[in-house]
């Protein structure tokens, strides 16, 4: 909110929402179902994935929602299903789930990672869940085929949460990381109470599991490289993941948010990961306590050109902000950024760093929601249903709460949160899932105008979605650094395009693209107020 | 064995034991044998004899009380509580027995708290409060375990009751303020601490606890950080050995990148008995910033060990 843009001021003065709930108007009628019963299986509390993806390459972002499922004691009167909504381009979406062949499967659904993992020009979908995940190959005709078995990415027996597509070995193909949570079984009933009522047992009652990394062989199959890469040696209750080259060494690293297990900062050393979370001081809070990490996102919060990390946590723990100083340790700015002030009562899940008002700095969108219905009988400052948060950045990494419309006065059991510009107006929109009710699609109306520049990258040597690319836009006002990350938020997949907010006066002069392949490309003369398709300038090598 | 001897030989309890129904002479013989065994240090055999005596004379409170005393001597506090409780049930009017039960229950509660067995502690505390409804220490114990079991509002009630029963209990006042803080009743907590400062002006623990609350409030912009520092420093003026106040001041210094001050405070906290995982972690961070990598690594190792022990100790 560095420049306090006119649209933002206008919206505030006029009382117009910065984000408008358009769920019903868009024709989205799907509802989430988690099968909650008196048994209180913990898996019920961590479901609800969402993705923005353009599955049919029509230039319009579509929406995919992932449902939970039935449990032994929690039956649904209607079939529990995921939902793929096709964007018609007129503000409305149509449910194409059945036609697309997105089945419910036999798993209890969790999250989504969507990307062009075949480099064929079509977005594939991986849906995480318990006790396995599903990989859908995009046939290129609006339909999908379940190729899990052939691909070898079932993640069998695991409770997979968030997942990320990223190229960990720089071979130009997207590999798959799955954040696995804990040992679990529906036959293992654990009865816990909170304030005299059935409640979810503490996460620490469930032994954490190692996450999993699948290497993309390039022929439609994958190889489990969890052990070889070092991932398998790091068990813990993982929920969120984002892939980004945090140290600029050309290898994609991972930040894994874990629930009452120390977070992981996995530095990629040529395909083998080294956990530097302790050295980086992102594993624990300042008291050496592992917070309940749920979601995580990366971006340059303080404008220094380095990626920082925001992590959502449990109530009274604060959602955390770790600033990347270019060396270890990171600097925890949870208090100084005012995140502590705004997030103390909330259990956070989905989190996305996005420039909602296109003023040139990254703001924070967070969805919250507690696990315990009776929580206010233990803590008067905390409630079961909680509001989403829009926190505006002053450009220096200090946040203030934006009164962004009625949605932010309402309360939800927020879980997965995805960001994407579904109406192509340069204002990044948001969708999130709330347990056992309709999802919420929010159109961003706080960034009207043409003070933005959008980029869609197409890798040739690099993976086609250019996940892992670093983009630096030089403008008359300075430089903006953004990344196309893998994963991010919680159970979510996002628009892979990058939108630069130009602020009131910013004029783009040059765009620098640092492709995952290691090559750099410089482009000038890009006009504001529109998206630009840019293809990696080096052609794919002939095998 | 003092308690056992007092119970068995002084005849105090014996003379007050009601409903002296006829009992087999073997029971008395076993009890006498138990007394001799206990005197010679054979607690296990003494307990065995007393169990048999209690079986033969099920309405004799003395045998059960004596058995409780032997268990206590053996460090079997759970069994001791159960035995004394049975004795009290048989002779509810016996003041000494009740005092013994209350005392051993509180001792056992302290053990459970040390061992982080919070659910067992809560059950014990509820049982103790039910038997000793006018006992401020019993309500203190209840408040402690309710807090540890996240029953914060119930803990507020328990500490409030403890304070009502003993308005001179600084512990109850501190506990109430801390429970209110955990229950999200921050303004109430502030009022409690401020009242406590007036009522117990020389009580350093009040200042320390209030200082901790002010630190948390300052993190969310609800208090000035300088107020927190002043409160903690005033606590240390009264009692320089307050390890928690040292830790908090060290943490504030570390957040300000003043690693030298932080390390100094952490060293003092450690010297004054603070040895939990958070101290080792924070201390390691400070040492690393001072370039003392080797010492930092040693502290990190202590952190890992302590963390593991703390997590292993968190049983029900």
Mean pLDDT of chain A: 95
Largest interface: A-B, 24 and 27 residues
- The poorly predicted ranges of chain A are 1-7
Question: In what range is the share of β-strand residues of chain A?
Answer: 25-35%
CATH fold naming of the domain at 1-15 and 23-114 in chain B:
Serine Threonine Protein Phosphatase 5, Tetratricopeptide repeat
How would you describe what is shown here?
The complex is a heterodimer of chains A (543) and B (316). Chain A is 6% helix and 35% strand. With 543 residues, chain A is mainly beta. Chain A starts with 5 loop residues before the first helix and ends in an 8-residue tail after the last strand. Chain B has 316 residues and is mainly alpha-helical. Among the domains of chain B are: 1-15 and 23-114, Tetratricopeptide repeat domain (Serine Threonine Protein Phosphatase 5, Tetratricopeptide repeat, Alpha Horseshoe), CATH 1.25.40; 240-316, Serine Threonine Protein Phosphatase 5, Tetratricopeptide repeat. Helix content of chain B is 78%, strand content 0%. In chain B, α17 runs antiparallel to α18 (293-313). Chain B is elongated and about 75 Å long. The interface between A and B is medium-sized, with 24 and 27 residues.
